[in-house]
Amino acid sequence: MNNSLQQNLIENVDQEDEIKNLRTIVDEDVADSNFIYILNTILSGTARLNVLLPTATILAFTIFAPLVTNDGKCKSLERWLMGSFLAFLAASCVFFSFTDSFRTATGRLHYGVATIKGIWTFNGGKTKPCVPSDYRLRCSDMFHASLSLIAFLTFATSHSDVLDCYHLVVPRKVTNSVPLVVGFVVSFLFVMFPSRRRGIGYPFLLQSDALYQRY
What transmembrane ranges does the database entry give (predicted)? Predict the structure, then answer.
């Protein structure tokens, strides 16, 4: 009788140990999967910074700023042109942040602009996605548009030709360090809070990226 009780106790202890080991393994697997997901999210967002940041806008500014400002030797006309050029590029940063795309049942790709009610396509709004509310304007879009605008304006206003054009005296340390600091902060925020928009300029091969799927 005592031997049977001891055997039962030993079996119960072994079963409890096995259950604890299984729970430990499951917890470790969950922790590893969460870590891998976070790591993939960060790496994926980092790889897409050239899409999220106003790279094309900054490149266009870098190319045309010396021409518009006459290498910083501005007169009244050049100042007006430079101001208009900056306003146009700043507006483009905001505009492209609101663009998005979707595919119809036939697989055709359509681009449009996010609105409060949904997405307005460039063909006059005739074509709509299956669930228009999934594409409506959100607070996160304002957040990403603000980041893009801040990144561009910081770079543009620190450009030597712009400073010379408007006769602004700023220490060189400021013009060299501020764009780097702002760029780092904006890039970090873009990586941590990526945009799910797949608008104009979004690589075609990444349209099916699982990280940016809405469904």
Answer: 49-68, 80-98, 142-158, 178-195
Q: What is the torsion angle, in degrees rounded to the nearest 10, for the CA atoms of residue 90, residue 92, residue 98 and residue 101?
A: -160
Domain that residue 192 falls in: 53-98+138-200
Whether 214 maps to a domain, the answer reads no
Same domain, 80 and 143: yes
Query: Is the same domain home to 33 and 64?
Result: no
From residue 78, how far is each of 58, 62, 162 by CA, in Å? Answer: 19, 16, 10
pLDDT tens string 2-57: 455 455 544 554 555 555 554 554 444 444 566 565 555 555 555 566 666 788 88
Q: Are residues 195 and 178 in the same domain?
A: yes
Percent helix, strand and coil across the chain, each to the nearest 5? 65, 5, 25
Tens-digit pLDDT profile for residues 148-158: 999 999 999 99
